[in-house]
Amino acid sequence: MNSTESTITRPEPRAVCALVVGIVALVLAKYDLGSALAVIALGLGIWAVVRIRRSRGRLVGTGIAVAGIISACIAIGYLVTQLTVVYLLGLLLHSPYTVSETQFGHNQKLYVEAGYSPNVMGIEAVGFADVASGTPGQLQLTGPVSWTCQGYFWSHEFVSQNDFRNLPVFEVGNTQTLGFSGPTGRYTVRLTIPSLNASVARTFDAGPMTKDPQGWPAPAGCVSTPT
Fold first, then answer.
1. Comparing C-alpha atoms, which of 220, 186, 216, 218 is closest to residue 201?
2. Which pLDDT band, with edges at 50, 70 and 90, does 52 fall under?
3. pLDDT tens digit string along 65-80?
4. What are the DSSP E strand ranges found in the chain?
5. Which residue has the higher pLDDT, 190 or 34?
6. Helix axis angle, 62-93 relative to 32-54, nearest 10°?
7. 5, 9, 73, 156: least surrounded by Cβ within 10 Å?
8. Nearest 5 degrees, angle CA 166-CA 138-CA 195?
């Protein structure tokens, strides 16, 4: 009696593990653990497929392994999408202004926040100081065009915990954020408290602004000074 030799097959356990871990990674995709599990599921799935192909029919479960790989890729794709969105929002919402600070007196601080904003196509500046409300100050913008602004530091509403913007803000008239326009070039904003011999400055490059000199009026409360 002739007997035929049959091949005994068994499932590849790594394929099952890949699918289970991949599904868990999908469920936890919005957490860091989900990302780590997705990488593990991807590795298990690829490993399982390689072993199945090399088993010459003794191992089965390619479909399960592929399902685990797909689940892992979806979870990883979710992470990549999250990071991309956060990065793009960071670019969109990133403040074009930078802050310079100095210390004076009895560990008091003076801040100037200034820069060129492509959104408004102009220069904006605002200052804060650890001084008594009503302290006089002066803000100067120097560059291709220059202005000098006399004003006072006034207390204002609470901003947020441990934020230097809680300090009295420099105002010219009733304006806190001073806006300037002029030719493209390098500008310096300097904020000074003459009575306390305190001064801080910020230098930056300004991009395209209006080319019409008639569009460069001095901000209210500021006077044009020779460059």
1. 186
2. very high
3. 999 999 999 999 988 9
4. 10-11, 59-60, 98-104, 108-117, 122-129, 135-142, 146-154, 169-171, 178-180, 185-193, 198-206, 222-225
5. 190
6. 150
7. 5
8. 85
The amino acid present at 65, given as its one-letter code, is A
Tens of pLDDT along 96-114?
568 899 999 989 999 999 9
Q: Are 189 and 201 in contact (CB under 8 A)?
A: yes
When pLDDT is cut at 50, 70 and 90, the band that residue 92 belongs to is low
Residue whose structure tokens are 């009295």? 168
Q: How many CA atoms lie within 13 A of 207 on its CB side?
A: 7
Structure-model confidence comparison of residues 160 and 77, the more confident one: 77
Instruction: Provide the 3-class DSSP secondary structure of residue 136.
Output: strand
How many CB atoms lie under 10 A from the CB of residue 227? 10
> Hey, what amino acid is at 157?
E
